[in-house]
Design a protein that fits this description.
The chain is α+β, with helices and mostly antiparallel strands. It folds into 2 domains: 4-98, no CATH class; 102-157. Helices cover 34% and strands 32% of the residues.
């Protein structure tokens, strides 16, 4: 799993050519272009590329013409490349945010144990209820419910 996540926020507007943002009225962008703003939520800078050519480093704003492929690349020892793709017309803001490793690791552990509880609960419920063993049936329902809730919570944690 990558160690960074990208958050995309879309708004309305339109227009222009792939270049750093200039003063208002300096140049009209081509129709269907996107005004894109790229930021990092930490001090870690990201390189912005259009069609595999570097154009700026976060934070930056530029116009992206239709059919230009956008990607971000972190400046780390082991860089992360985020493939953004082709942009819709309008105003778009991209915020690169580091992954919270503690929550992610806790979610993995929680998913493991909650899945085991869910499988055990299903097994106990099906065997206990089929054999009319009320203790095993009740225990299976409780274990399965706890496992299902734990699985849901662990996935949200990740």
């Amino acid at each position: 799993m990558r160690n960074h996540v990208i958050a995309i926020v879309l708004a309305a507007a339109g227009s222009a050519a792939a270049q750093p943002l200039e003063a208002p009225g300096a140049q009209q962008p081509p129709p269907g272009s996107t005004h894109a703003t790229f930021v990092s939520t930490t001090e870690l800078p990201w390189d912005v590329t259009l069609d595999r050519e570097p154009v700026c480093t976060t934070p930056c704003s530029l116009w992206v013409v239709p059919m230009q492929y956008v990607a971000l690349r972190s400046r780390e020892w082991r860089p992360v490349k985020l493939e953004v793709g082709y942009l819709p017309g309008g105003d778009v803001t991209f915020a690169a945010e580091p992954l919270r490793r503690g929550k992610w690791a806790g979610g993995i552990v929680g998913v493991t144990f909650a899945s085991m509880a869910l499988v055990t609960g299903i097994t106990l419920t099906s065997v206990g209820c089929a054999t009319h063993d009320s203790t095993m049936c009740t225990g299976g329902i409780i274990t399965g419910a706890a496992g299902g809730i734990g699985l849901y919570a662990s996935i949200l944690l990740m």
